[in-house]
């Protein structure tokens, strides 16, 4: 899915050669794990940060706003960690298109564990839209 209406969106590299570890772009904006036996063509749960940056960040936003902390093979990540890492990955994968994608996404209320808070977490807002339109210094 390409959004030609977004003025700042640069065309993705063609063909997209994004890869991270064993994960590679399928060329349709979705990743697959080259270590697995293959992939389900209908499985669109792993958006590519290189050529599908907006969708990738939308997934990350959803995770960051619903996860307080997540224990995984890479250690423990807070919702804030999830968002910061996703932006870092997307910026590297699509340096020309990330600013436009972040503008579309808007503020992200990430969750961070906080034992002194009543609910055990606090909200840390990222990606405040206080930058001039078109600014690349997000
Ligand atoms: Zn891609």
| Residue windows where pLDDT falls under 50 for at least 5 positions | 2-7
The helix/strand class is alpha+beta
Can you give the helix content as a percent range?
25-40%
What Rg is obtained from the alpha carbons, in whole angstroms?
16 Å
Number of helices: 3
> What ligands can be seen in this structure?
zinc ion
Distance between the termini: 24 Å
User: What fraction strand?
Assistant: 15-25%
Going across the biggest sheet, name each strand in turn. Answer: 1-2-3
Overall number of strands: 7
Mean pLDDT: 86
Q: Which outline best applies?
A: globular
Largest sheet: 3 strands, antiparallel
**Topology order in helix (H) and strand (E) letters:** EEEHEEHHEE
Question: Which short descriptors sum up this protein?
Answer:
alpha+beta; two-stranded antiparallel sheet; 7 strands; binds zinc ion
């Amino acid at each position: 899915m390409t959004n030609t209406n977004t003025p700042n969106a640069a065309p993705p590299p063609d063909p997209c050669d994004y890869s991270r570890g064993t994960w590679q772009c399928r060329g349709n904006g979705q990743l697959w794990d080259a270590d697995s036996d293959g992939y389900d063509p209908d499985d669109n749960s792993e958006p590519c940060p290189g050529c599908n940056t907006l969708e990738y960040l939308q997934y990350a936003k959803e995770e960051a706003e619903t996860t307080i902390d997540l224990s995984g093979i890479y250690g423990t990540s807070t919702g804030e960690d999830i968002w910061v890492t996703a932006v870092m990955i997307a910026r590297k994968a699509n340096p020309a298109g990330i600013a436009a994608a972040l503008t579309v996404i808007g503020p992200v209320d990430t969750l961070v564990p906080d034992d002194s808070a009543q609910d055990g977490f606090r909200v840390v807002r990222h990606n405040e839209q206080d930058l001039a339109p078109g600014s690349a210094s997000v």
